[in-house]
């Protein structure tokens, strides 16, 4: 019998140097993941929000939400988000990964990709208030989408991993200095996906 605190399948290392990216294929069972996905669809205040990109205000190609401890605000790409308070579903998921990783998180930034037309462009999670070498725990539910990583400076070396229903992708160490990541559009994907990135935001 496997302890429920431990992932059901072996974790794999995605990059070989200048950072640490570990993929846990299923930290939640299929059944648990289905329930969590439904709960997140219904119990999260999803919004489509604008960002500033090259001096222009544009709508993000996905829905987003920020939940977390109440005393800190969080912003990226020229916007500031005020966190909603934790709810039961989020506390359940947060406890699971905090136990697994022996690390604590203050916020979760969530993305709802309605179908393959929704995406997230190349970026690094390197906001100042995440600290020098942030630990980011990214949980996925719903249809699998390809997560791509590439060297920030040369743009040459690339890695890719399919993020499955109930999986966890951990990024830590120097990853955000040397690698950028994205979720590209996929014409053939018609189903939704929800991603939660748990972060530790320094006040
Ligand atoms: O949807 C994903 O897996 C990636 C999300 C992401 O990179 C972010 O929220 O910063
Ligand atoms: Fe990111």
UniProtKB/TrEMBL annotation:
One of its GO terms (biological process) is DNA alkylation repair. InterPro entries: AlkB-like (IPR027450), AlkB-like_sf (IPR037151), ALKBH3 (IPR032854), Oxoglu/Fe-dep_dioxygenase_dom (IPR005123). Residues 104-202 form the Fe2OG dioxygenase domain. One of its GO terms (molecular function) is dioxygenase activity. Its cofactor is Fe(2+). Pfam families: 2OG-FeII_Oxy_2 (PF13532). Keywords: Dioxygenase, DNA damage, DNA repair, Iron, Magnesium, Metal-binding, Oxidoreductase. PANTHER family: ALPHA-KETOGLUTARATE-DEPENDENT DIOXYGENASE ALKB HOMOLOG 3. This is Alkylated DNA repair protein.
């Amino acid at each position: 019998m496997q302890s429920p605190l431990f992932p059901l399948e072996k974790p794999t290392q995605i990059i070989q140097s200048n950072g640490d990216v570990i993929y846990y294929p299923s930290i939640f069972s299929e059944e648990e993941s289905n329930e969590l996905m439904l709960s997140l669809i219904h119990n999260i205040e999803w919004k489509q929000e604008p960002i500033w990109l090259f001096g222009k205000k544009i709508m993000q190609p996905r829905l987003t939400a920020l939940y977390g401890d109440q005393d800190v605000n969080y912003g990226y790409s020229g916007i500031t988000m005020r966190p909603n308070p934790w709810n039961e579903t989020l506390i359940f998921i947060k406890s699971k990964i905090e136990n697994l990783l022996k690390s604590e998180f203050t916020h979760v930034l969530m993305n709802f990709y309605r179908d393959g037309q929704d995406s997230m462009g190349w970026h690094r999670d390197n906001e100042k208030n995440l600290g020098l070498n942030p630990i980011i725990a990214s949980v996925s539910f719903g249809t699998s989408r390809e997560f791509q990583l590439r060297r920030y400076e040369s743009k040459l070396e690339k890695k890719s991993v399919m993020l499955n229903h109930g999986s966890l992708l951990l990024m830590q160490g120097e990853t955000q200095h040397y690698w950028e990541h994205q979720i590209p559009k996929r014409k053939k994907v018609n189903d939704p996906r929800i991603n939660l990135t748990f972060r530790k935001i320094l006040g």
